[in-house]
Specification:
This protein is an alpha/beta fold. The protein is built from 14 helices and 24 strands. The structure holds shikimate-3-phosphate.
Length: about 425
Amino acid sequence: MTQKPITKIQGEYIPPGDKSISHRAAMLGALADGTSEFSHFLESEDCFRTIDAFRVMGATYKFKTSETQTGSRTTKLIVTGVGLNGLRAPESALYLGNSGTTMRLMLGILAGQSFETRLTGDPSLSARPMKRVTEPLRKMGAEISGKDDANFAPLAIRGGELSGIQWTNQFASAQVKSALLLAGLYAQGSTRVTEPLPTRDHTERLLRLLGVPVEASKSGVAVRRVSTLHPIHMRIPGDFSSAAFFIAAALIVPHSDLRVLDVGLNPSRMGFYHVLKQMGADIKIERQDHGEEPIGDLRVKTSSLKGIDLDPRMVPLLIDELPILMVLCALAQGTTRIRGARELRVKETDRLRSMTEGLKTIGARIEECDDGCTIEGVREFASGSVSSYQDHRTAMSFLIAGLRAKGNVVVRDADCVKISYPDFEGDLKRICS
Ligand code: S3P
């Protein structure tokens, strides 16, 4: 894809449904006793991998599509569950594509099933570490095999009689926490997860809505075995991580004024917002509703940004926004230091490497270190051709960088944006002038 510089961003924008919540909705809906409805479900490649897997195991999914007030597409997911113990064994391996969330969370659910399941993925997913999930699940009683002592897919898992676990997570990872809580729904006794830093709490919120008592305190999050999940109706908020690309666009394109409507404002996802404020961005929350998931509207205007020393404790609260934050820091006045972000090296690609290489190609002044990078801001980017490394967030970060370049920025293999944001191009067109 080729991105040209543009002169202005204006209007109203509704981001697509939240990816993390959409995965959880498709999974927990499949385990509920009855039919659930989730409006503004994210129809992306990753979420379809979750749906395909649970369809094979017996859940039923239907979609109803309509148009939002800004002309984008929105879909209601209607899922009929089979109950916590109603899944049937798949006949062949389940292919989970690029989706780390599907693989890690599913491992938790499959740990509670007495049949064997094999899980495979694309080359990127097959290179992502799974031991962080398979090790505690084995301790709970699941049998799991796979490359390097079950660290890499393909994996085979056979569950059954699980015992609860008190697990201190070495990584600040919502995927690990969620996998263990989901396994905890099938385990004898209590399952408690303690994290080094707080991570997104969508699993906890959704479980409570489905009737599961979830205990959350300083000593972690805990669940116990339950016999049923109640079906629910819910509207999925706009994905703050997808909106981040458009927020960034409005900040760096001159004369911009963008209203972002119905976006998720869950505090465990708001790190990017707080860091932007620290950088001097003109961004404010215009409306905020505190429902099952906080949601609201933002207004963003062109801003001159300044570099920052990123507090490493913020990293889990903006983990998926770090690539686009690096783009913004590369255009901010002064020096930015990002540390404590080693987890970026085990995302869909090594994002510290992909972003540093691409940003250098388009004239940014950036040096990578083991757990982060140091950036000196420039006024605008040069034209150039960069690789997405088949990583959706790397691709979208460079497409946005192209809006503030001297000439065209070509992003190779940009088709991967459909993994989390199928209509990225259409949404960008609607607000560009
Ligand atoms: C996610 C958690 C994060 C995030 C990913 C989605 C989730 O991963 O990067 O895109 O839905 O739980 P980690 O848990 O590995 O940090």
